[in-house]
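User: Can you model how arginine sits in this protein?
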Amino acid sequence: MRRIISSFLLAVLVLSAVSTAFAQTTPKVTVIKAGRMIDTVNGRVLTNQTIVVEGERIKAVGANLPVPAGATVIDLSNATVVPGLIDTHVHLTGDPSDSAGYYDDIFRKSFVDSAITCHIYAKRTLDAGFTTVRNVGAEGFVDVALRNAINDGKIPGPRMQVATYYIGSTGSHGDLNGFSPWLSDRMPPEMSGVADGPDALRKKVRYLIKYGADVIKFGASAGVLSEEASVGAPQFTQEEMNAIVDEARLHGLKACAHAHGTEAIKMAIKAGVASVEHGSLIDDEGIRMMKERGTYLSADIYNDDYILSEYAKMGYPDKIIDKEKQVGRLQRENFQKAVTAGVRATYGTDAGVYPHGWNGKQFFYMVKYGLTPMQAIQAATVNGADLLGWSENIGSITAGKYADLIAVEGDPLQDVRLFENVRFVMKGGEVYKNQMAK
Ligand code: ARG
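Assistant: Here's the modeled complex, given as structure tokens:
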């Protein structure tokens, strides 16, 4: 009798173990009925598509596919479904709403403050329909911690590729300028992106990779939101830029360069960057070089509006506002020249300089300055995925890729401003926002 009871107990145990294992391994199935769907690979619109999502990935896509038994159906038949958007230039560790004024921020805050608040901006970004971002500069490895917490499912946010520190030369856009030497060097050298000379730069790249960098970002030229006099002068030698890009390459990483200035843009392209950030003062030769080498342009052409309307109020000095006036309009015109000539663009906004969650505002400018609405959508999907080296996983609604999907109400090809009001967000098969529900 004891034997019978114990074998009965064993059977129950085995059965319950099997059913738990089954419950754990049977992925959730969701079916999305898309009235309109953007095929970003071929640049066309498909109608009445069924998207079958199993677990975190897309299982099948097609017209009127059968709905698997037990699937949850989401009706987006009145919407346009688009792959989750990709912003290739953000700084999730800062937001203008954190700012107590330029000088206050510099001297009274540190990366610990941003570590406390950055999850708010990650969520706003995701809610805005941006399911993937490339974070191109942060202090204290806060971006690594944020990326990891999102990947662990602890907090909602976009998939992230992170650069950790912006690498810059002494006195560059990546350094602190305009103050007494007694005030300027606040950090031990390890906790800074400042380095000079090929050897030190190689060491810096190794150090950033050691602590979590997925991509390397450096400052090829001067910038706007810093106190050095120039906006576009080169801030590394050709040799230094070559060393940075080459060291990243040895580790299998891509590099990108902050570059406003004409000469610095060309030096960075020669060094082999995967993307030029800003690209404000690019000339015909730079455009030709980018086309030849397939270098992406990640230009923040909405930014100017926000800086000119808000940054003086935030206490930024006149010389910075004047620098913005020097490049803002030219950047837009040169963006138009470059993309019209065939340079491939990604969608890079510099969100963080302006409020996170407003990422979608740049669509309007990308269309005003040279792209068709479809090309702007491709910039924010397939091109971004290619730049990140993640084409197999994101950028289109294709079987096998992550189920990163968003929806807008209406036709974004008629009105790209609809991307300022994304109504549905799914990332990795999980619904984070649904304002389309009836
Ligand atoms: N982070 C950039 C810089 O300080 C922002 C440039 C913004 N201006 C512009 N026109 N895109 O240089």
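A couple of observations from the model: Residues 223-225, 278, 300, 303-304, 307, 324, 327-328, 331, 350, 353 surround arginine (CB under 6 Å). The first strand starts at residue 29 and ends at 39.
User: Helpful, thanks.
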